[in-house]
């Protein structure tokens, strides 16, 4: 019967298409097309009015030409005319043309919208569907503006035909995804949820996509869908394969609907209602059981549909992450698939296991498959499967198996496909750093990495190894020895020369005692590579040479000779020439003391997010590195209990003030294992990145973190990040607030109000963009309450409201005051009235590391006075708080008791409220 | 689903459907990447790939490759069956569909796709329901919607849909 439409449709079109197919060359094709375009243009411009059929035919030809990849700049008007034809076939072609070739010509959009409006109100289901398809295909903002109000009405109206409902649901979904702010929730939302109960399976299948999207954005409003979805799922899962008639696909009942239902449930936590939950667990068990049953058909469609549901069920189980029994069953099922003869299933099993590996219930179960996965990495024929195996090894890696996994990945790298080498290199580098027990292993691994895949070792990786070597003095000697050996290879990668140059320049002295690596031998080795290297590496080597002059005065003559040679001092590259000239001069005129100061060993690098991890994230796109987001348990055991604890205060996400930063890092003394110091490496990035709920209540914890520092991230949730930079002088301050939109969607009606006055901010924050706000602060008199900042904006349809205390505290207006011991005690005695003193005794809630304490006290804004207190364990500080009304002198004494893990903090000032407030604030910091 | 592409073994694009807004230049790049990537795969490789942030699912039917791009949370196996159901629908409509049918009746291939998928989501999965509505619109092909025959046509639609 459908034969009616074929062939006899448009003869001219068929002839044109076969002409194009017969063209022998690209030129001939273009010629034929240009001829046709000229013909169509003249017909459209001609005096004679075209009949509908011709118009349809020509529009269709234009469409064909466009789909071949040629530009079309006319015919839109004729296509729009077809929309209002009363012949179905002409209308249909018109809509197709518009859907494929949207032009944001506003005049045209108005006409198109008009035609759509007519068809939507025609009450003819076929026309309504055509119009809805067009809106869904175009999905532009103009269309959303015109129809976002109308479509929900069509969707829930009682007399709408099923097919129209299906189109309306998906059309609305498309508009919501494109312009969420234009689709307003209303009384239709509850009726949409009830479409889950619709008798027509097709309607449920279409509607559930819409419901899932809306639920993920507004979970509370759609909560009722959970129980409806569970009962619908349970009916499908328990039905016999023939019950659902044509909705059974190769003996699998309603696979699409089942998967969508399981997907919808993943927008929510496990159901609280025991009965609903019981029913759902039963469904999941049935699905897992069915996987063990013999197949009802040998067709691949049968097993695909069945396993699609199984994988979706496993995703839900992983999402709940609360049913150990189901998690282990899921893991076993995936374990079976790991060895399945279908490549697709092996691929998917590796992929799903990656997410299972991050659950504490199944991490161990996943680890039992390590040999299979390593085998897959070695033997799979298909690179995309090998890639998944590498991902899984990365995800299942922990302290217990890190050495094995890193070794396997390294050996795989030697033969790995070029397409995945760079990512593999990053992964090896991250694992090596994250799970390094002894840093000599780390250094070995990275140098091996450079040796095996030097071309793929990005700057981030070799920067990182240098940062770590500089920051850890226990590995410096070993690193110098190892690079020295590595450089002896006749051909070594330029990245190796860079690392070698940097490390020998800093720490070559540590191996200079051995005559086999005497200073001159080291220098000659480095210089033998010089001529093979690119300009940036040569520049680095020149710096290493001048460092050598400082480390080893005996090399001075040789190196000066090199610097003086024409190839250096007259080098055509400006940078090299400048370095050669300056270093030569520096080495000849500066005294050894000056030289030693200028060329001093590099200070430790501030710890921040590992540049490698940042790079991996960028490579994979946001959301793809969920594996790194480990739970607290994992974090605790990293790096041997965080022996270089950077306290929460100088956290990686923030930019701590320079003094706090360096002091925090120099603390070589190990913090006791129990201290909750954030691991100093990769993962500390996440220690405060947990999603803070966008609560209506005032957010306090951000506030307290800023008592002793001025810069950092004040607030962060899934949508918004607020960063702060502030500076204070005397009684004045300036604060920069940075509002960063973390999503890809615009925030609209963005506003901030402060209970004092501010300049307004831009009302729109584009996706991924940041806006800045400056607040000028003057301290009039001492105060306790911090200013409240209220932020409102619309994200999607929903209004977001966030209240924050701005971290402006009285101590920000401290001027440090240096004084001698006698002076201090005299003033201390002067402030002896009881109300002038505030005292607190409290338990240490962080480690009691000396340098950390000092950093915090300096961050407070006071001067830290040395040699004042007779007990060297104690700290005393002095400062003056500047307000407009008066100046308040303030003295502080902090007495730690390491045995009892307690502190006593005493404050004396000329004003009782100030003593009390500073004491309260500071007591929260230790 | 972000897009669906049909291309031949020689890399000739036969059908392209974009479910999310993509600039023309980007479209051309995606088509180029997909054809080179998919055509370069060895036989009996798995049907899934990662490409940027998308999962790519493809399958070869005779001389034609069907290839779609999915979001990270979409189900690959089900997408394979989406491709299969589309092939079945084309097959039912054309009767032993071949590449030539799709070349010469490209507009029909688009119409059938619109009945099945909308905005990248499955709209209807029943082959019976889908074939009926595709046939129904075919019967309307040359019918005039003048006042005189409107009623009779509406009755056709209703008889077909119900």
UniProtKB/TrEMBL annotation, chain A:
The topology of this chain with respect to the membrane is: Peripheral membrane protein
- Which keywords accompany this UniProt record? Cell membrane, Coated pit, Endocytosis, Membrane, Protein transport, Transport
Which compartments is it annotated to reside in? Cell membrane; Membrane, Coated pit
Q: Pfam family example for this protein?
A: Adaptin_N
Q: Where does a 1,2-diacyl-sn-glycero-3-phospho-(1D-myo-inositol-3,4,5-trisphosphate) bind?
A: 11-12, 43, 53, 57-61
Q: Which GO terms describe its molecular function?
A: clathrin adaptor activity
A cellular-component GO term for this protein: AP-2 adaptor complex
| Residue intervals of the Clathrin adaptor alpha/beta/gamma-adaptin appendage Ig-like subdomain domain | 704-807
Query: Could you tell me what this protein does?
Result: Component of the adaptor protein complex 2 (AP-2). Adaptor protein complexes function in protein transport via transport vesicles in different membrane traffic pathways. Adaptor protein complexes are vesicle coat components and appear to be involved in cargo selection and vesicle formation. AP-2 is involved in clathrin-dependent endocytosis in which cargo proteins are incorporated into vesicles surrounded by clathrin (clathrin-coated vesicles, CCVs) which are destined for fusion with the early endosome.
**What is its quaternary makeup?**
Adaptor protein complex 2 (AP-2) is a heterotetramer composed of two large adaptins (alpha-type subunit AP2A1 or AP2A2 and beta-type subunit AP2B1), a medium adaptin (mu-type subunit AP2M1) and a small adaptin (sigma-type subunit AP2S1).
Q: What family is this protein classified in?
A: Belongs to the adaptor complexes large subunit family.
Protein name according to UniProt: AP-2 complex subunit alpha
UniProtKB/TrEMBL annotation, chain B:
Q: Which CDD domains match?
A: AP1_sigma
Annotated AP complex mu/sigma subunit domain ranges read 1-139
Its placement in the membrane is given as:
Peripheral membrane protein
InterPro entries this protein is in? AP1_sigma (IPR044733), AP_complex_ssu (IPR016635), AP_mu_sigma_su (IPR022775), Clathrin_sm-chain_CS (IPR000804), Longin-like_dom_sf (IPR011012)
Secretion signal span: none
What GO molecular-function term can you cite, just one?
A: clathrin adaptor activity
UniProt keyword DNA damage, yes or no: no
SUPFAM superfamilies, per this entry? Answer: SNARE-like
- Top-level taxon of origin: Eukaryota
Q: Which cell locations does it reside in? A: Cytoplasmic vesicle membrane; Golgi apparatus; Membrane, Clathrin-coated pit
- What UniProt keywords apply to this chain's record, in alphabetical order? Coated pit, Cytoplasmic vesicle, Golgi apparatus, Membrane, Protein transport, Transport
Q: Does the keyword Secreted apply?
A: no
One short Pfam name that applies is Clat_adaptor_s
One CC-aspect GO term: clathrin-coated pit
**Which GO BP terms sit in this record?**
intracellular protein transport
Oligomer status and interactors: Adaptor protein complex 1 (AP-1) is a heterotetramer composed of two large adaptins (gamma-type subunit AP1G1 and beta-type subunit AP1B1), a medium adaptin (mu-type subunit AP1M1 or AP1M2) and a small adaptin (sigma-type subunit AP1S1 or AP1S2 or AP1S3).
Q: Which family does it belong to?
A: Belongs to the adaptor complexes small subunit family.
Protein name in UniProt: AP complex subunit sigma
Q: What is the lineage of its organism?
A: Eukaryota, Metazoa, Chordata, Craniata, Vertebrata
């Amino acid at each position: 019967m459908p034969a009616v439409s074929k062939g006899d449709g448009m003869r001219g079109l068929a002839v044109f298409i076969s002409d194009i197919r017969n063209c022998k060359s690209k030129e001939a094709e273009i010629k034929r097309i240009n001829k046709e375009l000229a013909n169509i243009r003249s017909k459209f411009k001609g005096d004679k009015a075209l009949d509908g059929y011709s118009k349809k035919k020509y529009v269709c030809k234009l469409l064909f030409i466009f789909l071949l990849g040629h530009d079309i700049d006319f015919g839109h008007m004729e296509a729009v005319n077809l929309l209002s034809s009363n012949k179905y076939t002409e209308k249909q072609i018109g809509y197709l043309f518009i859907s494929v070739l949207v032009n944001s010509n506003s005049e045209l959009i108005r006409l198109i919208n008009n035609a759509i409006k007519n068809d939507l109100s025609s009450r003819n289901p076929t026309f309504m569907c055509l119009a809805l398809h067009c809106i869904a295909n175009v999905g532009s903002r103009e269309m959303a503006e015109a129809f976002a109000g109308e479509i929900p009405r069509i969707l829930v109206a009682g007399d709408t035909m099923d097919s129209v409902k299906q189109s309306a649901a998906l059309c609305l979904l498309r508009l919501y995804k494109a312009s969420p702010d234009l689709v307003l929730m209303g009384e239709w939302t509850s009726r949409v949820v009830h479409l889950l109960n619709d008798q027509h399976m097709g309607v449920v299948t279409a509607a559930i996509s819409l419901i899932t999207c809306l639920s993920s954005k507004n979970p509370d409003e759609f909560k009722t869908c959970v129980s409806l979805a569970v009962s619908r799922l349970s009916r499908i899962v328990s039905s016999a394969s023939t019950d659902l008639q044509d909705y059974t696909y190769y003996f699998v009942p309603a696979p699409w609907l089942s998967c969508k239902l399981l997907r919808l449930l993943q927008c929510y936590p496990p159901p609280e209602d025991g009965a609903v939950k019981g029913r759902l667990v039963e469904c999941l068990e049935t699905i897992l059981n069915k996987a063990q049953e013999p197949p009802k058909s040998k067709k691949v469609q049968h097993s695909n549909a069945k396993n699609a549901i199984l994988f979706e069920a496993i995703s839900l189980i992983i999402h709940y992450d609360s049913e150990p029994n189901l998690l282990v069953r899921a893991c076993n099922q995936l374990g079976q698939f790991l060895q399945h003869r279908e490549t697709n299933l092996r691929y998917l099993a590796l992929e799903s296991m990656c997410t299972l590996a991050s659950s504490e219930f199944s991490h161990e179960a996943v680890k039992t498959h390590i040999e299979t996965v390593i085998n897959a990495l070695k033997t799979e024929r298909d690179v995309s499967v090998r890639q998944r195996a590498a991902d899984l090894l990365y995800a299942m890696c922990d302290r217990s198996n890190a050495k094995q996994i890193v070794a396997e990945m390294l050996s795989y790298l030697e033969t790995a496909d070029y397409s995945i080498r760079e990512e593999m290199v990053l992964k090896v580098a991250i694992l090596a750093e994250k799970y390094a027990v002894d840093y000599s292993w780390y250094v070995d691994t990275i140098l091996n990495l450079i040796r095996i895949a030097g071309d793929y070792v990005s700057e981030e990786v070799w920067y990182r190894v240098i940062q770590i070597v500089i920051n850890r003095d226990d590995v410096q000697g070993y690193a110098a020895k190892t690079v020295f050996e590595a450089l002896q290879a006749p051909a070594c990668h330029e990245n190796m020369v860079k690392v070698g140059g940097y490390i020998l320049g800093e720490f070559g002295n540590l191996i200079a005692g051995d005559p086999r690596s005497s200073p001159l031998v080291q220098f000659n080795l480095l210089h033998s590579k010089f001529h093979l290297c690119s300009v940036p590496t040569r520049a680095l080597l020149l710096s290493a040479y001048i460092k050598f002059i400082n480390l080893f005065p005996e090399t001075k003559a040789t190196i000066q000779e090199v610097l003086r040679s024409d190839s250096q001092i007259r080098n055509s590259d400006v940078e090299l020439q400048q370095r050669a000239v300056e270093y030569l001069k520096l080495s000849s005129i500066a005294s050894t003391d000056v030289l030693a100061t200028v060329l001093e060993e590099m200070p430790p690098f501030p710890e921040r997010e590992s540049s490698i991890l940042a790079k991996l994230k960028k490579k994979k796109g946001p959301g793809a590195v969920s594996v790194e987001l480990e739970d607290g348990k994992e974090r605790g055991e990293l790096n041997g209990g965080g022996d270089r604890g950077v306290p929460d205060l100088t956290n990686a996400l923030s930019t701590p003030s320079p003094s706090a930063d360096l002091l925090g890092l120099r603390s070589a003394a190990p913090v006791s294992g129990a201290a909750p110091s954030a691991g100093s490496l990769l993962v500390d990035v996440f220690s405060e990145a947990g999603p803070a709920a966008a609560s209506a209540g005032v957010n306090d914890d951000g506030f307290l973190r800023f008592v002793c520092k001025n810069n950092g991230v004040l607030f962060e949730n899934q949508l918004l990040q607020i960063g702060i930079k502030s500076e204070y002088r005397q009684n004045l301050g300036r604060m920069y607030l940075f509002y960063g939109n973390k999503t890809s969607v615009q925030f609209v009606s963005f506003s901030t109000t402060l209970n004092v006055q501010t300049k307004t901010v831009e009302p729109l924050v584009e996706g991924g963009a940041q806006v800045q706000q400056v607040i000028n602060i003057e301290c009039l008199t001492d105060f306790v309450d911090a200013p409240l900042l209220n932020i409102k904006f619309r994200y999607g349809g929903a209004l977001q409201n966030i209240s924050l205390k701005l971290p402006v505290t009285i101590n920000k207006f401290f001027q440090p005051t240096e004084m001698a011991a006698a002076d201090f005690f005299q003033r201390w005695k002067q402030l002896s009235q009881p109300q002038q003193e505030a005292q607190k005794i409290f338990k240490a809630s962080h480690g009691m590391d000396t340098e950390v304490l000092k950093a915090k006290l300096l961050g407070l804004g006071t001067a830290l006075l040395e040699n004042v207190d007779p007990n060297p364990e104690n700290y005393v500080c002095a400062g003056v708080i500047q307000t407009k009304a008066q100046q308040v002198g303030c003295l502080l004494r902090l007495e730690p008791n390491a045995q009892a893990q307690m502190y006593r903090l005493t404050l004396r000032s000329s004003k009782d409220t100030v003593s009390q407030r500073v004491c309260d604030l500071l007591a929260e910091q230790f | 689903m972000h897009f669906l592409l049909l291309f031949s073994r020689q890399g000739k694009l036969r059908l392209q459907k974009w479910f999310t807004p993509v600039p023309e230049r980007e479209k051309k790049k995606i088509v180029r990447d997909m054809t080179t990537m998919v055509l370069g795969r060895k036989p009996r490789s798995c049907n899934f790939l990662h490409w940027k942030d998308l999962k790519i699912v493809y399958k070869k039917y005779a001389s034609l490759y069907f290839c779609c791009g999915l979001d990270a949370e979409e189900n690959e196996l089900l997408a394979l069956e989406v491709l299969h159901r589309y092939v079945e629908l084309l097959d039912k409509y054309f009767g032993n569909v071949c590449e030539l049918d799709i070349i010469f009746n490209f507009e029909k291939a688009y119409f059938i796709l619109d009945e099945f998928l909308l905005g990248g989501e499955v709209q209807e999965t029943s082959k019976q329901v889908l074939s009926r509505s595709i046939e129904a619109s075919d019967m309307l092909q040359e019918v005039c919607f003048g006042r005189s025959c409107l009623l009779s046509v509406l009755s056709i639609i209703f008889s077909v849909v119900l």
